[in-house]
Amino acid sequence: MCRWIAYSGTPVLLSQVLLEPAHSLIDQSLHSRMGVETTNGDGFGIGWYAQDTADTPAIVRDVGPAWNNRNLREVAQHVRSDLFFAHIRAATGTAVQQSNCHPFRSGRWMWMHNGMINGFRLLRRDLALAVDPALYPDIEGSTDSELMFFLALTFGLPEDPPGAVARMAGLVERTGHAHGVRHPLQMTVAVADGERMWAFRYSSEGRSRSLYFSTRVDTLRALHPATEFLRDISDETRLVVSEPLGDLPGAWNEVPENSYGVIQPGNDVIGPFRPDVHVGSVRG
């Protein structure tokens, strides 16, 4: 499968999160500890919001492996952001091409995914027909991940992210079951609008891919007062990751099975996630 990182908080150089930790995303691209595959070399992508151009996130993607890409290091060492995504891909049947690399973008929205739609080859046509016709021309690649994004947009992502993702997941499960697929969906998803970030962990079989969120910074400072990175970031800084970036005691918490969280100014929220299988007609 894939590995990903989502960051929200004090503006930092991307390299401080993507390159410098002991078990950084670069290390995970070669030595994943919790993924289905140890190596994730079928492309990568980073997306970030810049303070002076917050209407649309910037996206950089490439089909090469992250571990030896000079452009990734160059960008990461010079770009500073308060909200960014990074993703390394292990393909699950679709082509290794730039348009299939995460994150995906539509307007100010950004999306990335680890997992798969089981039986996607059988389900693809039915799911694609459910996408809003006005949005369909913007689909560039052939992955289940991008199609999930556009289904969520169709089902009202800008107005109600948890509800839209629940309706998307419900449609995938209902369609999968109609085609005889017992466990249609496996997903950890991150989605952001430049101000807030949502993360979802769900699978039809109840054995979801790994996902962790970082402990509150003030708590970590008390536990590890000598850790320099913690001195320079705000109490609201959070990371959500496919697997921990290091072994700092108390730093990482597993996202509960079948749940979602919102990272936002003020209080973050975590709650149960269930697909909405009663999906009505889509918007025309």
UniProtKB/TrEMBL annotation:
The keyword Transcription does not apply. This is Class II glutamine amidotransferase. InterPro entries: EgtC-like, Gamma-glu_amide_hydrolase, GATase_2_dom, Ntn_hydrolases_N. PROSITE patterns: GATASE_TYPE_2. Residues 2-244 form the Glutamine amidotransferase type-2 domain. SUPFAM superfamilies: N-terminal nucleophile aminohydrolases (Ntn hydrolases). It comes from Streptomyces longisporus. Keywords: Glutamine amidotransferase. It holds the Pfam family GATase_4. PANTHER family: GLUTAMINE AMIDOTRANSFERASE DUG3-RELATED. Coiled coil: none annotated. Gene3D superfamilies: Glutamine Phosphoribosylpyrophosphate, subunit 1, domain 1.
